[in-house]
């Protein structure tokens, strides 16, 4: 009996030693993982563990991710990213154009997983508007994905802070945000006291042949409000809802702003359309194409503050007579894109 008790005790001791050893191993592995990674909460509310000292970045949506990477001074770490359209690609110098060549990785917000895997990014910044199945596809392939969004100014600032934390450059993120806040404050100081009944009603029109407009759910509505105007389509929902010419005539906007697709055809497409000849905006020649020729200022990213200044200067020229829009853009681009707006071929 005594021998049996001793054997049982010895067995329990061995079990305790094994459990302790395993616990210590797990603890050590966890400590090593904590040293090598950090955990962040992305803008979908997901907990994402990302590596420290990231050297290879992919920004899957070029409207926000790539601009922020540049603003944070981390562009040398980008792999396989594509700025939307060729114009901004052409504006980059040859070294960066080579780096930004598409490599077949991204086309219309879809990604070639095989090519992406070959690029070996340590983190992928994906705009939330990207198809959710694509995010799952990336993660199923073993890629680390951080979701970002920017359909409001506040969201875009949160995206900057999130990305700056992931890339360990918080100070640069705050510098970028402070520059944007300064421009927003300058606009607010000049238009904040404009009475509601004196603020122009603006139609933000997009979509070439199809008459699609910026709805109340979209960044453009926030931009118009920040610039001292109202969106006539603010009551509409979803992204780029289609409307009829009759609806536009009913709205009778004071100003029409043409987004990138509509603006590509020029303002003549509106002025020459006989259906719109009686609109106040047409009669008073208040139809404008949104800038710029090397990358639009109305996409979700803090760069949209330039668009807000442009809108405010356009609709309140007397209040912004001292603002040289090109010079302002030159300074902003030089600080946060590495080259001035003019050096990159930018025109307004």
Automatic annotation (TrEMBL):
Pfam family of the protein (one): Peripla_BP_2
Listed GO biological process terms: cellular response to iron ion
Signal peptide range: none
Ranges for domain Fe/B12 periplasmic-binding: 57-319
PANTHER family reported for this sequence: MOLYBDATE-BINDING PROTEIN MOLA, VITAMIN B12-BINDING PROTEIN
Family label: Belongs to the bacterial solute-binding protein 8 family.
Protein name as annotated: Iron(III) ABC transporter, solute-binding protein
